[in-house]
Predict the 3D structure of the following.
Amino acid sequence: MLPSSTNLKICVMSMTLCSAGPSRSSCSDSRVRPQQHLIMSYAPAGMQPMVASLNQSALYLAVSLSGAAGGIALDAAGAVLLLPLATVLAVAAAGLTWWHGRRTDGRSVLS
C-alpha cells in the first residue's frame, strides 16, 4: 500500500485531469474510490463488501435527493437564489467535512 500522502497526491491529480478532460463522466468514479477505500479500512474483518455497498447506496440516495432538493428550490425561490443557496450548502459541507476529519491528537486524518 502506498503512503497516504502519495494516495492523496494521486487522487488530486486524477481529479484535476478528469475535470479538465474531454470525457468527464468516465472519471467520476475517481472521486469515490479513495473515500470508499478509507471507509473500508475502518470496517471489521469480513464486513468490507457490506460497508462498500452501504457507502455506494448512500451516494446514490444523496444524488437522487439533491436533484429533488434543487427542483424544489427552483420552484420555491427561482433561479436567482440558487447560487447563494448552493454556496451555503457547499460551505456547510466543507465545514462538516473538516469537523468530522479532526483528530483529538492534533494529527491529520490523512497522516
